[in-house]
């Protein structure tokens, strides 16, 4: 094996290995907040106040979710981050359910700690062009 080719494969396999999830379970954030809950007045869960180092995380079998419930006046009633619940579809996207009295936004995902935001993260998609560029530049120097 030529020494130059080894310098190509080591970083390539390191980068690819970092993208693979370990084990069968996905790690998710857990928190909830409701402005109407007298026992839970500290908001660590909504988008504006979420701080990952102040929130519990654990493993989930089906994936992660963030659920935001609004009343008929579009006022937020509850915000939850937890494991994807049985009977709900994993979409890696956000879906909205509406009734005359409420609106529910459910975002589901299947990567470790992916329920950090209600905006589905495309960091993996953004990383591939950079990865290809890096490999191409590095390979062309060999």
Automatic annotation (TrEMBL):
GO biological process: regulation of synaptic transmission, cholinergic; sleep
Keyword check for Nucleotide-binding: no
Domain of life where this protein originates: Eukaryota
Database matches in InterPro entries: QVR-like, Sleep_regulator
Leader sequence residues: 1-25
Spans traversing the lipid bilayer: none
Pfam families documented for this protein: QVR (PF17064)
Species this chain originates from: Caerostris extrusa (Bark spider)
Record keywords, A-Z: Glycoprotein, Signal
Entry keyword annotation includes ATP-binding: no
Protein name: Protein quiver
């Amino acid at each position: 094996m030529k020494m130059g080719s080894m310098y190509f494969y080591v970083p390539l396999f390191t980068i690819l290995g970092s993208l693979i999830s370990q084990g069968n379970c996905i790690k998710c954030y857990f928190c909830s907040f409701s402005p109407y809950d007298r026992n839970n007045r500290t908001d660590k869960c909504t988008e504006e106040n979420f701080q990952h180092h102040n929130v519990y995380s654990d493993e989930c079998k089906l994936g992660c979710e963030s659920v935001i419930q609004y009343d008929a006046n579009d006022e937020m009633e509850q915000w939850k981050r937890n494991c994807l619940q049985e009977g709900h579809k994993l979409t890696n996207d956000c879906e909205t359910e509406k009734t005359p009295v409420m609106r529910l936004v459910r975002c589901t995902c299947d990567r470790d700690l992916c329920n950090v935001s209600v905006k589905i993260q495309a960091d993996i998609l953004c990383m591939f062009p950079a990865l290809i560029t890096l490999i191409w530049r590095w390979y062309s120097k060999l």
